[in-house]
Structure formats: structure tokens, C-alpha cells
Amino acid sequence: MKNLIKQFILVLFAITSITLAQDAQSIVAKADEVVNAPKDQTANMKMILIDKEGNEKVRETTFLQKGSEKRIMRFTSPADQKGIAFLSLPDDIQYLYMPAFHKVRRIASHVKNTKFAGTDFSYDDLSSFEYAKQYDAKQVSEDETYWVMELTPKTGVEKDYGKLIMSIRKDNHYPAKIDYYDKGGNLWKTMERRNVEKIGKYWFSKEFEIKDLKEEHRTKMILSDVEFDTGISDETFTERYLKKAK
Amino acid sequence: MNKFAEVVLKNRGIVLASILMLTLFFGYQLKNLKVNSDIVSYLKPDDPAVVLFNRVGEEYSGTALAMVGIESDDVFEYKTLTTINKLTEEFKQIDGVSSVMSLTDILDIKSVDGGLEVGRLINKNNIPTDKAELENIRNYALSKDMYNGSVVSPDGKITVIIARLKQESDKIAIADEIKSVSQRDAKNFKLYFSGMPMQMSELSEIIISDMVWLIPLVATMLVFVLYFSFRSKRGVILPLLTVFISTVWALGLMTMVGVELSMISNLMPVILIAVGSAYGIHMISRYNEDIGGCNDSKECVKKSLSEVGLSIILAGVTTLIGFLSFTGAYLTAVTDFGIFTGIGVGFALLVSLTFIPAILSYLKPPKVKRTEHGKEDTAIVHTIDKIAQFVLKKEKLIVFSSVVIIIIGLIGLPHLKRQANMTEYFSDDTDIRIAEIMMQENFGGSIPVQIVVNGDLKNPFVLKEIRKLEKYMETVPFVGKPQSVADLICEMNKVMNGHYTIPDTREGVTNLWFFIESESVMKQLVNANSDEGIIQANLGTMDTKYINETVDSINNYIKNNISDEIIVINNVDLKLDKNINNYVVDEIVSQIKLEKLRYQVNNNIDENKLKSIVNEIGNIEKVKYSETTLEEISDRLNRFFEYESEIEIENRNSIDKIIRTIIAALDKKSIPKKMDLQNIIKSNVPKSIASDSEGIELTAYSLNVILTEYYQKEKILAGVEKIIPLFPNELSNNQKLRNDLRDDLWLLNENNFSVNKSIADVNKLDGEIFELGFIQTGMPIIFTHMDDSLIKSQFQSILIAIALVALLLMFQLRSFIGGLIAVTPIIVTVLLNFAVMSYLNVPLDIATILVASIAIGVGIDYTIHFTNRFKEEYKKEKSQLKAMEKTLESTGKAILINALSVAMGFIVLLFAQLIPIQRFGWLTATTMVFSAAGAITFLPALILLTKAKFINGLKNIEEPTNQINN
Fold first, then answer.
1. In 3D, which of B32, B125, B137 has the Cα closest to residue B82?
2. Does domain A2-244 match CATH 2.50.20.10?
3. pTM for the whole structure
4. Which residue, A87, B197, B915, B932, is most buried by CB atoms nearer than 10 A?
5. What is the pLDDT of residue A112?
């Protein structure tokens, strides 16, 4: 009898933990959904790169995105980088345009762990926001405002990170903060999404900050003139357009 | 002196108690004693070269490199790569490591299927297991200068992991951790540890182990010598205790004021044991002599002390001067050493004159065995007797031989070698030396050379000057492949545009720069504002002579070939501007001549012929494309119209027709005019598209860019074919040389040029002025500074020491000439030391530089003791020869005992692990023996020959007759 109770409790425990895990996974999936909700978006993005001495470098871009995977980022300042543009398409296809040589070049796909344009984001960090697909989630704690999830890469998914700790807002499922840990278990980067507000139908953060604790470097991204669902055509996300638009 | 003796003996209890207290106090300080093996910290911190070196080290983290070499049958095996990756990631976790570079984490810029890839050579998250794939990586890595000879050896069997350490970190602790992690996780591989932090770690181990082994050994040696001379317990224990006490005091004081042990510090206790014991020896020796004439030991001590005290003080003060003469030496380690050893000598003096008399006064007088002559019966006495017989007969011969020695010494002086490079201080069988030789053979050495570049590093013409200097550096013997931001820009340009050159526009540079800006290697090459950067290279020699030559040749090139102002002239058509064309042709010719040096070609290339060929290439208007190239162009245009063209043509046939027409046009004109291209497009597309005149114009422009590139490439490759025959046949198929020539000739395709200000002035060329400056830094230049300073410090300290000692002797002898004559034996000894060094190829280094001054400081004691005793004896005997005989028998004996014990002490240093310490040991030992020999042969001969006129108060000396023979 005792054994039966014991087994029952064990089974119950197993079921709860599975449901809990599923719950965590679906919360993360919901967070992905919230971030990827707009059909398309345009914005001006200012990137401020700050080194450990506090020296700042500012670069400005115009930013176009359709769905979660098609994106164009074109540099408008500083002057010597004006016109440089990136096009990202699904399946890790990326193109670069260099105005000095009037050339478009494909960027090889396995540069994922390389940093993007002097920022603290790797190409991978910037690729589509789809954490539920790539990571297994487990809730570690919660308080009144946040669920705190621990994300570990799914088997077969290649990541630089050992785990992530993601804080997701309970009110709107917006992922407010992610801590990135290296494979040795040390905190490597932190990313915060600030100024989260509702623009039209969508929740959106107008300021990101990512800190690289190893390099003692951080990047602030500030978005302005944000517009959603303006019906950007698929033609915009082509090499031809990348090269043509000034 | 009498009073002093009285005071000491009256308060003998207090004296002993306070010495005990002080010893306990200083002994307690020793617990904080630290070892400093950071060679850079030995350098004078306000030397501008050192300031720059340290700043570059801090800002570009380029000086403290800890390198781990891993040897295996094939580095490019899954197992080896996994280990490399494991170590790389583990090193990154060590606190104080700023970055780690290895095969599994190194920047790679390449073009894959027309795609640009700025990433890593090997993906650390997915190390290939497939043999063929590994073979591909191996071939690729070995074909690139960025890796071959930099992280992997040319035979692919050794690879290095390079950890850059933060400037303020505890480098030894990090080096030790890197070592232990490597030994734990790569225990199946042969490992090499090299670079400054590793050297420091090994050095500090050596310093400590030498301390622990050598000091007791020297002390034991002293015990033997003392026992042999005195045959009494007190004769052994008292001098030994004296040096023990003074060493503890000096080291304690050093610790208190925060001075750390350096690589020469362990000489200090040895010197104190060897030198400091002399004062005690003289005291005891005199006491043993006097004991026969008095009953009470206290009275006797007082007598001895007042007789010999002044001599001992004088001797001590001169030795002290010898050591203090190093103050202000270029190496702070040498200055510190001089000061604290000097202070230690002072302590030894103080203790000998207080502690020993106080103790002796408590002891019962010893019984001394006497021979019938009233002399002590020891072996040394017999030796002295023989020497005395010889000296008293052959004074002229002795003086003559000394003059010969002086001449030989002076002849050898200019041949004196120096050795500043610290790697050479390790003996051949040390791990550091083995690793260094491996590094030299496979990676061009481990000594970093850096050139600081001041100027706008995004300015293409500043980068072009860097490339020129780098190409020159490659031709300098022992200099490994230089690395700078210019090379990365060239790599990027090669991937983007197919040639390894700096683009001729700022926009071109910044576009490429943008892509590599965030790479961690950039921080090691250029500052945050990109207005200063460095060129890094390794030096593969340990020989100070070659190091000097390398430093000079790089500096000369900078001085003679790089202007600090350049004029940039934009939008030049070389075909129209003859002036600039000539300049460009000259530039190309000089670059091609450098290729000759780089490829070690000996045959002479006729410069005028070369010039006319280059001119000819520049004038090529039309190129002839091969069928394959035409196909390639057609494919390229196909892709262009399909994906990139500004106007979108959907009709396949139209595209084909346009391409065919363009290809046909190439037969007449290598770059069709934009108007012609527009017309070709217009006539082959539907009206709806043809009316988009802006789109057509832009498309024609893009086509023009593509066709121009093909033309330029073809023209230059045709040019390479014309240049190649000027090189030896065996190089005609060398693809690397062909690529280099292509890059040299590429200048002919450019429109913007920079000209040195002076040339621009002569040719009245106008343009924008840019400033730039190149300064060499790095370890080699520090070595050359040390090298210069070794000679300077050496002569400075010798002159100071001799001058002060001469003054002291003049004062003691109350005679100017007398002082000068009395220092001559010392000068002879010093010259003899240099003669030995130059004829036996013993270089001047951080330790051997000390020998001459120690010889002066210690050697002069013999002169002082000897002349003092002679004066005293002469007063009693009134006969020069008798007085001399007595002096030789008494003081002469003490000198010999002392010199022997000192020499024995120093000879022990042959067991030291550092080469300079070994050399110092035997050299000082020899010099001490010379010095003593001089004091008991040359000095008496000199006194006899000059009739001792220089010794004050002995004016009416009799003629020397051969009384001794009667």
C-alpha cells in the first residue's frame, strides 16, 4: 500500500513537472509571439556603442522588417559608413551592400557568433526572435511582475550560450530582460528592453541595452519614428533593392 | 678609535642585547619578502622608451603574452583541435586574461562561393570530425600568412595558443594557472610555454630555489675556509654570525621599504657572506696576534679593536662606495641591489666592530701554537713566506708584468660584448630556452616588436605607408611576419575585390573597416579613435648584436623612407599627368625590388628596363580576354540582370541579347562607354522599361563598374606576365610572387595618390596634407637601451668608485700622489677583469656589470690594510724591507685568507641556474684572487720601487738594499 502511494505521488510529481515545463515553454512561445506580432515595421534606429572608459560611438540606421525574418538595415550616419546596408532573409541568408565598391555580397551563414557592426549583438542575437523553437524552458522563479525562465539550447541546436535566464512580464508577456551565460556558467551578456509601450495594437520596446560583461562594452539601441503594418512589399527585401536605394 | 673601543666594551651587554633585538625585528620583516621577476619593471620608469613600451602594453595588451605550444603528429586532428578548444576556453575563464587566440578562435576573412565570410577559421562549437574536411582546413590554414608561422607551424605539427594578459594582472599567477591547466588537460601532448609571463614564472622559481640552495652552500664553504685559517670554533662562528646578522638586517630593511627581490638580488646574501666576513676575520686575526701580549681578554680586545678598527672602517666604507656607485644605473634592479648590498656591508661593518669585540671579551683567550720563529704554524704562513721572498727580490719584474697586463686589458676593452636579452640568461636546458628555440624555428620568435603609428588610420594613404614599412620589415633578417590593421583591410579588400591592397579612397577603407571593427583583434592593433595603431611582429633572435642591427635597420628605414607629411592628390589620370605617373612608376619599381629581397632573389634587375615595363603596363588600353574569361563575364552579367540590376528585365531572351551585344563590344573597347551601354539596354527591352531613364542610367553605371573591374584585373595580370621573366625561372610558377606583383602593379589602376611632402614640393604638386609618424617600440628597443646603458652604467660606476676610493686613500695617506699610486693595483685588477671578459667572450650583463665595482670596493681593502700595516711596521722596524716582510707575514696572510674565503664563496655561484649569476660567480672569484695577488705582489713592489715616498711621514726612507739576503 505504502508503495502504491509512493508510486502515485511519484507519478503525480512527474505529471506536474511536465505540465509545469510545458507551461514554461508556452509562456516563452507566447513571448516570441508578442515580439513578432507586427506584420511589418519601419523605424529609425540609433545605436550607441559605449566602451569601458565611457567613450561613445553613435551610428544611425533606417530599419525595415517584415514578419519575423525579413529585415533591412541601412546605415545613414556616420558619414563614412553611410549607405552600408544589410539584408536578412529566412534560413540565415544575409547580404551586405558596400557603397564604396558598389557591390552586394552574400554573407556566409556560419558567422552567427560574430558581432554585428561593432555592437554587442552577435548576428545570432539579432536573428529572428524565436526562443521557444531553439531552447527548452524551465521556470525558475516568479514574482508579481515577472516569470523567470531558464532556457537551455535544445539538443542539436548550436549556441554560444550555456543557458539564458529570461524575465517575462506577466501583464503582457513581453520579455523584459535576458541574461546570457557562457558554457562555463558565467554571466556573459545581459539584454534589457526598456520603454515598453503599446503602439497601435502592439507592445514594443523603444530602447534596448545589451552589455557584454567580458569585454566591458555595451550597446544601446534607441528606436524612433516607429510605424507598423504599412504594407512593405516583398520586393523591398531583395538584392536589387538593397543596391538601388540610397 | 680607542674611545670607541672603550664605549663598546663598557656597554657590551647593551650592545649584544640591541643587536639581538634588531635581528629579531628585521627577521620578522622577512615574512613579507617578495620576488619580482618582471624584467620590464627593472627598467628605469622615466625613460621615454620605457614609458611608450608600457603604454603600448597597456593600451594594446601586446606585451604580456603567455603562449602555450602544443605538439602533435598533426594539429588538424579532431582530438588535437578539441584539446586546443578546451584549453582556449579554459584560459578565457582565468581572471586577468584579456583575450585568447588559437586555431579554434581566430579571425578568418575569406570568400566562399562568392560570399563574404568574416568569421572563425574553425567553428569551435562544431569541430569537424571528417578527415577530408580537416585536410581542407589544414591546407587552407597553411596557405595563409595569417596562420602559417603565426598560430600553426609550417609543418602543421605545432600550434600555439596565445593568451593576452591585462597589464595590471598578477602575471606569474596567471602563467602558473595556464601551465597547470595545460598540463592537466593536454597531458598527452608535448607542451611548450613561452612568452614574458612564462619567463617570469620560471625566473621567480629559479630566484627562490637559488636562494634556498646557494646560501647554505656559500655558508658551508665559508665555514671550511674559516676553520682552515683559524682552526678555532670562534674563528668560524663569529664571522658567520656577523654575516648572518647583517644579511637579515639588510633584507629586512629592503622588505620594510617595499623593495622586492630581483633576479640579481640573490647575489646579495652571497656577497655579504663573502665580503662581510672579512671584517670579522681581520678583527679576530688581530686579536689572535695580540693575545700573546696581554693577560685579560677584555683588555686585549680593546687593544686589537683600537689598532685595527680604523682599517676595518676604511675597508668597509670603500666597499660600501663600490656598491653605492650603482645608484642611478639604468636598471632599477641594479640600483636597488647596489644600495641594499651597500647598506648590508655597512651593517656587517657595524656588527664586526661591536658584536665580535663584545663576544670576544666574554671568552677566554685562546692558546695559540707557535713555531720557533714566533709565527703561527699554518700552511698559509709557508705560502706567504715564499711570496714574500719573491716580492722582495723581484719588484721590478712585478711592476713590469703589471704594465703588460694594463696594456693587454686596454686592447681588449673595445671587444667587450654585451648581453641584454633576458632569454639568453636562461641556460640551454631550461624549459624557457627550449620553448624559445621552438618558437624561433616555427613562429619567428617570441620577442614582440611594435611600431606605433600616429595618424588617421582610416586614411588609405596612412595605411599604404604602413604596408610599405611592413614589406620592408619582412626583408629584415629575424623579423617575423608583421601584422597591423592595414593587413586586415587588405584581407577584406581581397575578399571584396580580389587584390590584397589598400583601397585608394577613404570610403573604401571605412566600408571594409566597418565589417571587422568589432573583432577583438582590432583592439590589439588600433585605438578607439583610430588615430593611433601598432604594427606587430616577432623577433626571432636572442643575440644582442642582431637585435641591435634589427632595431637600427627598422629605424633607418622609417627615417629615410617615410615622410612625416604626405600630400594626397585626388582624381589623377596617370596617362595625362606625367609628373605623378613617374612618381607612381618609381613607387612600383621600388616595391618590386623589395619583392626581390622578400623572395631572396640575387640576380640584378635592370632598373631602367623595369621602369619601362611598368610604364608600358600603365599604357595598356585594350586587353584581350580569353574565351574562359569571356564566359565568366557573361555568367557574371547574367547574375547581375537576374538579381541585381536596377531595372528588372523579366524576358530571358532580352537579357541574353544584351549580354551578347556587350560581350561583342568588348572586342572593340575594353570598357564600353556608359552611353553605349545605355543604348544596348534600351534597344533590347520593352518600352515600359526603356522609358525608365534613371533606372537605365543606374544599370549602365553598375555594368560599367563590373566591366572596369574585369579590365583592370586583366591588364594587371598581363603586366605580371611581363615582370615575371625578370625573376629566376624557378619562381615563374610561384603563385604567391605572382599575387604580390599583381598587388604592386595595382597602383596603376588607381586615381588617388599620396606623395612625400619633400617630393611634392620639388615637383610643385598640390594636395591635401596629412601627418603621420612611426615610432619603434617593443622589447628589442628596450634591449638596445639596456645594452647602451650597460656600458654607460659600467663606466659611470667604475669612475665614481675609483674617484671616491682615490680620495679616501689620499686622505688616509695624506698625499695626493700617494692616493693615485695606491689605487693603481685596483685599476690593474679592474683591467684584468675586463681582459678576461673580452678574451674569454664573457659579456657584460645585469650581473657581470657588478664585478668591477665589487673588485674596487673589496680590493681596495687589501691596499688599505696593507699600507696601514706597513706604516705601523715601518715605525717599529725603520727598515723598509723588514717592515715589508713583517707586513706580508701578518696582513698579507689575512688578505690571502680573506681573498680565498671570498673567492670560495663566489665560486659556489657556478651552481646557480641563471647564466649571468654563474658568470658573476667565477668572474668575481677570479677577480678577488687577482686583487689579493696584486695587493701582496704589485703593491709591495710599488712601495719598494717608489721608496714609499707616498706614505706620509716616511720621507727619510733608506735605499732598498738586499738586506733580506744577508
1. B125
2. yes
3. 0.82
4. B197
5. 63
